[in-house]
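Amino Acid Chain and Its Fold in Token Form
===========================================
What this section holds: a protein sequence and its matching fold, both as plain text.
Structure line: whole-number tokens from a learned vocabulary of local backbone shapes, matched to residues.
Purpose: to set a sequence beside its fold so the mapping can be learned.
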Amino acid sequence: MSGKPIVENPSHVRSAEIIVGIPSYNEADSIALPVDAASRGLQELCSGRDCVIINVDNHSDDGTHDVFMNTPTYVPKIYISTPKGMRGKGNNLRNLFKAAVELNARAVVVVDADLKSITPSWIRYLSEPLMGRYDYVTPIYLRHKYDGTITNHIAYPMIRTLYGLRVRQPIGGDFGFSGRLARAFLAETVWNDKIANFGIDIWMTTIAIARRFNVCQAFLGSPKIHRAKDPAADLTKMFTQVVSTIFDLMVDFEYLWKEPGESRPSSIFGFGLGVDEKPPAVEVDTEKLCHSFRDGFETYNDIWHEVIPLPELTELEKLCEEYDTDTLYYHSNLWARVLFSFAVAYKECESEKDRLRIMEALIPFYHSRVLSFVNKTRNHSLKDAEEYLENISRIFEREKFYLMERWDQAKATNGRLLG
């Protein structure tokens, strides 16, 4: 990241044991709630401790800065912004890593700026493990079964399968990390535009696990309610950056994920019982998902034939011909093999342009997977849908041998891969 950040520190804070960081871009209409919750949460924690709330911003032009600075708080605030024109959540968090090191923080909690359900308790739940032996804390909370589809169908099963640790929300947006891990994040040599933007959460989670830091999860006690997105809407940028980062790190950490063994549960703090509140419904445009899948056979036919082995591709073609929007469904082992095949193809690409083509060609399959899940779970409760997602992850683990074989034999018999 180039360019000097803009810093406002009216209370002249020089050290802080606990930091709450709120990354933002144009969140003037929502940031006051998480700021207030963070302040009240820190007030409960800060007996004898120095604490601070830091808004790491992308030079918002909607008044985010003013709302943040003018929201009454019990603890001091710092505003840090990237230079004008520099965007990206990852760039915001990199500024937070630096601030954590400079302030000699012991624990850093990050919460999304668009949260509607945050309570002061979230700050305690995410920070307390960091005051002990843990370095990275990810959240566990209720989410609607159709919220977080990139997490549910790609990020969670991939992280669990590759690195052997069950971290249910690897890109949840709300998490905690130690000052020691902040230093480690800054020491990593790989930093690119994808990590500087939406790839940052999965990058942090992967680094924490792969570098053998102590990772745990924390129940937050209430569902995540935020600005939910229809999975059929245009999430191309987020999808591309998150999944590309997963695939990039597979190359870097190949020596780790090829180790045999089943996944293990991580330590969990807090209580998962007694949550009566339900997350709001997420509407899904299933027609749009189906059209994307069908159109993909024409738009990406050449890439699909290069990437996907013939048996799997033939099965998918048959599905597209025989089923409609309300009935399309396919088994999770087929989805795992498709995703693994794209990871292999991505590895074999020789240019960033080819990698982008791979990502574009994967999106219709992602849409088909979401549609398949919607059709399967339409009448499922949140609990039943979560159990179904657990079974999907177990299937991914069983299919890992397929990934390893294809990874080692990239020029397989069913066609050349892009490169």
About this structure: The CA atoms of residues 151 and 176 lie 18 Å apart. Residues 286-408 form one domain. The radius of gyration is 21 Å.
